[in-house]
Design a protein that fits this description.
This protein has a single domain, classed as Four Helix Bundle (Hemerythrin (Met), subunit A). The protein starts with a helix and ends in a 7-residue tail after the last helix. Helices cover about 75% and strands about 0% of the residues. By secondary structure, the protein is mainly α. The chain is built from six helices and no strands.
């Protein structure tokens, strides 16, 4: 059996490879992944990072490497979503981006707690809940908008941005 740390370090596809592989809408000719697939996959990677981080916290080990990985990957994920918001003229973009900033601030708070040798367990639980709420609310709304936008474009309802 592998540890959470081993699972994080040897995923089937690294977060960097995934980030380079999928960046937007599906290309019917090539079968390139659509935005929804990429976003869902990235959410799974974020959950994997959080599980690994929780295991490190439970073992009272240094969390800095995992917190930095979470911060870096989340930043790339948020940037992908923000590009999609602009491309698809998402009307709730400003509020969604504000949620991204708030989540990034929470990650920075986790890093500051860890750097000061204060316990991060409770703050990590709150962050995981906030991230899940964001995924189920703001991200679901974005993906629904993109799917509707793509449908209107495919039926001749307007250009894709």
């Amino acid at each position: 059996m592998t540890s959470d740390q081993d699972t994080f370090r040897r995923p089937a596809e690294s977060p960097m490879e995934h980030s380079r592989r999928a960046d937007g809408d599906a290309d019917p000719a090539t079968g390139a992944p659509c935005l929804a697939e990429a976003v869902h996959s990235e959410h799974a990677i974020q959950r994997q990072l959080l599980r690994a981080l929780a295991a490190v916290v439970a073992e009272a080990r240094d969390t800095s490497e995992f917190l930095q990985a979470l911060a870096d990957f989340s930043q790339r994920h948020f940037e992908r979503e923000e590009r999609a918001m602009a491309r698809h003229r998402y009307p709730d973009g400003p509020a969604h981006c504000a949620e991204h900033r708030r989540l990034q601030d929470e990650i920075e708070c986790l890093q500051a707690l860890a750097a000061s040798d204060k316990p991060v367990g409770d703050a990590l639980v709150r962050f995981a809940a906030a991230l899940q709420s964001h995924v189920e609310g703001a991200d679901a709304s974005l993906l629904a908008h993109v799917a509707g936008h793509a449908g209107r474009t495919a039926s001749g309802g307007g250009p894709s941005a």
